[in-house]
Amino acid sequence: MLEMRIQMVGTGSAFAKRYFNNNALIEGDGCRFMLDCGVTGPTALHKAGITFGELDGLLISHIHADHVGGVEEYAFQMKFIYGRKPLLYVPEPLIETLWENTLRGGLQQEESQTLDSYFQVVPLMEGKETDIGPGISVEMIRTRHMPGKASFSFLLNGRFFYSADMVFDRPLLEQLDERGIEIIFHDCQLHPPGQVHATLEELLTLPERIQEKIRLMHYGDDMEQFIGSTGRMSFVEQNRIYSLD
Ligand SMILES: O=c1ccn([C@@H]2O[C@@H]3COP(=O)(O)O[C@H]3[C@H]2O)c(=O)[nH]1
Ligand SMILES: [Zn+2]
Ligand SMILES: [Zn+2]
C-alpha cells in the first residue's frame, strides 16, 4: 500500500480569523489534490508554499464559502496562468448548484461556458469508491449538516474518514469504528450549541476507543484554551503533514 499524506492548509471554522478555512491537501503517489477551497484557500495554499499549478485537482464537500469561496480564483488561475483544466471531483448532487449558484456569475464570459470550460468535472456517486489518482481512492458519504443542504464526507483509501461539516452522528461513527476505520478527522464546534456541527460536548460522549481515532478540525480561534479538555481526542494542527499509513 502506498503512503497517503494529508496537510490541512487551514483548520479554522467559517468565522475563525487566526486559522484559515478548513481546507486540506491530500497527496498520493506523485499526485496532489486540494479538498475544498474556501475564501481563504488561495492565500492558505500560498502560505504553504504551493501554487495552484502544482495541484492535480480539487474535491468539493459542500457549498459554503469556507469550502468553495476560492474556486473562482482557482479556475481563473488555471485558465489564464497555467493553461490547463484541472480535475474537479464533485458529489453529483452538487454539480448544478456549484455552477449556477456559486461560480457562474464570476466565471461565465460567454453564454456557452459551463463548469466544463474550466475543469475536467468528475461526478462522485454516493457509496461508490473512485480512484482519483495513484494511491488515493475516495468514497463520498452523505452526512447531515444544515437541514435541506446536501453535504458529503469522504472515506479515503477505505481507512481514513474526513468529515464535511456535519452534525453529531453517533451511529455513523460507531459504524466507521466497526468497519475498522483507523483515523477520523472531524469538524468540531467548541462552544455549544452545535446546530450544524458536532460539538465537543457531544463528541466527548463517544467511547474512548472511538475518541482515540478522532482528530478535531474546523475549530474556532480559542482552540488553544481547549487543549487538555478533549478526552482522548486531539486537535489537527494547521500545516502539519500527517501520514495516513
Ligand atoms: O443554522 C445555522 C447555520 C449556519 N451557522 C453558521 O454559519 C456557518 C456557515 O459555514 P459552516 O457550515 O462552516 O458553519 C456555519 C455556522 O458557523 C450556524 O451557526 N447555524
Ligand atoms: Zn465550514
Ligand atoms: Zn458548512
Structural account:
With 245 residues, the protein is of the alpha/beta class. The protein has one domain (4-244): Ribonuclease Z/Hydroxyacylglutathione hydrolase-like (Metallo-beta-lactamase, Chain A, 4-Layer Sandwich), CATH 3.60.15.10. The chain is built from 7 helices and 14 strands. The chain has helices at residues 41-47, 65-68, 71-82, 95-107, 170-178, 200-203, 208-211, and strands spanning 5-8, 24-27, 32-35, 57-59, 87-91, 120-124, 130-133, 136-142, 152-156, 160-162, 183-187, 214-217, 234-235, 241-243. Strands 6-5-4-3-2-1-14 form a 7-stranded mixed sheet, with no helix packed on it. A 7-stranded mixed sheet has the order 7-8-9-10-11-12-13, with no helix packed on it. The radius of gyration is 17 Å and the shape is globular. The mean pLDDT is 97. The structure holds Uridine-3',5'-cyclic monophosphate and zinc ion (2 copies). Residues 62, 64, 145, 165 line the site of one zinc ion (ZN). This is Beta-lactamase. GO terms for molecular function: hydrolase activity; metal ion binding. It catalyses: 3',5'-cyclic UMP + H2O = UMP + H(+); 3',5'-cyclic CMP + H2O = CMP + H(+). It comes from Paenibacillus beijingensis. Residues 20-218 form the Metallo-beta-lactamase domain.
